[in-house]
Amino acid sequence: MEIIETSLAGVKIVEPQVFADERGFFLETWQLTRYKRALAFSAGLEFVQDNHSRSARGVLRGMHFQQRCPQGKLVRAARGEIYDVVVDIDPVSVTFGEWIGVHLSEKNHRQLWIPPGYAHGFQVLSDSADVEYKCTDYYVPTDQCGVAWNDPQLAITWPLEDPLVSEQDGQWPTLEQLQNHNRERVTP
C-alpha cells in the first residue's frame, strides 16, 4: 500500500496493493492494523458505519459534514469513476477554504482518507458509480450540514457542467455565510 499526502492536513490518498491476473483482481480495502498506522489514526478513532451509494453520471453529492459529530471517511469508487472533493472548513486552519480533488475509480482502486472536520462531496463521471465509504461516527440527521458546492469563494473546478444536485445540496450556505452564522451563535 502506498500513501500519498495531500495539501490538506491528514487528508491522504491510499493506493492499495492490487493482485491482478487474467481471472480478475484482489485487494484489501481495509485492514485494521495496517490502515490505522498508515493513516495515522488518533487514539479512539474507529469505523462505526459503512455507507454505499449509487449515482448516475453528473450527480453531485455534497459538500457534506457533521458539526457536533464529525465523521472521518475512507472513500472509494467500487464501480465507475468519481471526482472526490474535500474542503477545509476549519476557520483556525492555515488551509481554511482550500480544497483538493481526486479521481477515484474502479480502475485505479484509489481510496481517499478524510479525517473528521472536513466537508466532502463528489461528482459522478462515469455512466453510474457505486461509492463506498467507512465512517468514524454515526450519521446524525439533525447534525447534517453542508457548504454550497458552487461557492464562488471556494471556486471548486467540477469536471462536468450542469450537475444534478438534490434540493438540499442546492441550498447549503457559502463558507462565508456558514462562518458568519457560527460566529453569531457564539456571540453573547
TrEMBL record:
<keyword id="KW-0413">Isomerase</keyword>
<dbReference type="InterPro" id="IPR011051">
    <property type="entry name" value="RmlC_Cupin_sf"/>
</dbReference>
<dbReference type="InterPro" id="IPR014710">
    <property type="entry name" value="RmlC-like_jellyroll"/>
</dbReference>
<comment type="pathway">
    <text>Carbohydrate biosynthesis; dTDP-L-rhamnose biosynthesis.</text>
</comment>
<comment type="similarity">
    <text>Belongs to the dTDP-4-dehydrorhamnose 3,5-epimerase family.</text>
</comment>
<comment type="subunit">
    <text>Homodimer.</text>
</comment>
<protein>
    <recommendedName>
        <fullName>dTDP-4-dehydrorhamnose 3,5-epimerase</fullName>
        <ecNumber>5.1.3.13</ecNumber>
    </recommendedName>
</protein>
<dbReference type="InterPro" id="IPR000888">
    <property type="entry name" value="RmlC-like"/>
</dbReference>
<dbReference type="Pfam" id="PF00908">
    <property type="entry name" value="dTDP_sugar_isom"/>
</dbReference>
<comment type="function">
    <text>Catalyzes the epimerization of the C3' and C5'positions of dTDP-6-deoxy-D-xylo-4-hexulose, forming dTDP-6-deoxy-L-lyxo-4-hexulose.</text>
</comment>
